[in-house]
Amino acid sequence: xxxxxxxxxxxxxxxxxxxxxxxxxxxxxxxxxxxxxxxxxxxxxxxxxxxxxxxxxxxxxxxxxxxxxxxxxxxxxxxxxxxxxxxxxxxxxxxxxxxxxxxxxxxxxxxxxxxxxxxxxxxxxxxxxxxxxxxxxxxxxxxxxxxxxxxxxxxxxxxxxxxxxxxxxxxxxxxxxxxxxxxxxxxxxxxxxxxxxxxxxxxxxxxxxxxxxxxxxxxxxxxxxxxxxxxxxxxxxxxxxxxxxxxxxxxxxxxxxxxxxxxxxxxxxxxxxxxxxxxxxxxxxxxxxxxxxxxxxxxxxxxxxxxxxxxxxxxxxxxxxxxxxxxxxxxxxxxxxxxxxxxxxxxxxxxxxxxxxxxxxxxxxxxxxxxxxxxxxxxxxxxxxxxxxxxxxxxxxxxxxxx
Length: 403
Description:
The strands form 7 sheets. Strands 3-4-5-6 form a 4-stranded antiparallel beta sheet, covered by helices on one side. It has helices at about 35-40, 70-75, and strands at about 5-10, 15-20, 85-90, 95-100, 110-120, 125-130, 140-145, 150-155, 170-175, 180-185, 195-205, 205-210, 225-230, 235-240, 255-260, 260-265, 280-285, 290-295, 310-315, 315-320, 335-340, 345-350, 360-370, 370-380, 385-390, 400. The longest helix has 8 residues, at about 70-75. The protein is mostly beta strands and about 400 residues long.
């Protein structure tokens, strides 16, 4: 069966959206909101309730109906909430990965990643992954990226050479239905506490790895490393730093690479006030990665944290600003940029509809298969925590709310 998959993480719970070419839930009111599914997804809002659900995968069912059976199974898989099960997730084809950085199998906070396999009907637990040199405090599973038969798993405090705990990324490949570790990637200039591997982004044969606490330009200024697949090995080919980086910028907290363009967020940059944030864009010029732009939002201000999440999407750039309070206090926003002959131009600013204080829209952004999902991490509805997913593949729709 042909299917496309997208992942994101909201409220520390695994949320995995699986898109099939045929409807996955035939129920006519799958979300039990008293409104037939056909009316839920009709953009004309025939029931006039002011709420239109997205159907980005075109399966004639509200997108929220593609989630519950997987969410229920995976969110209850961890026996201990302190394991931070589902803090990071990834999915590709028939395999899903859920990190548990607080797992204690190999010592406190050593971390582990749970692998699930889709058997054509259900997602079933398949295998648990740990670092071959696992030890206390590694936080294995900090970040996960997977494509085809290869998975990359970050461990932001793993040993990294020279006696340091600067972080590492472990490479796993599936062989005969079993995932096996094949390599451990570390920075060539690893230093203790760099948090190498805290964020990952993969595009074809290039892997971008963030080290948000690298100190080259000041304490916790941050950096990013690019590894390229050369034959069967992943080799460091560049270390990326902003031209004007400074202490505390957190460069790398948001990172995305696509089609030869690398975008890196520095959400604590203070050009427009403390923690206002910025995004740097890098491209290859004559084979060398160079900074080609620095993006600062119009009317940005302190604590907006612009650049906390990033997604390169269909020729455009999405930037999360979860601290933006133009709509209401920390309601958050997402900025959309397009590149033209004069540079990157803001074309839209998305806010939650309706806006609620503390929603922090833009806390996470996931882009895959031409679809972008935006997470609001702290939304509160009628006293209950909830999360909102906004689907950019469906213009004019306000998104799906998950409670």
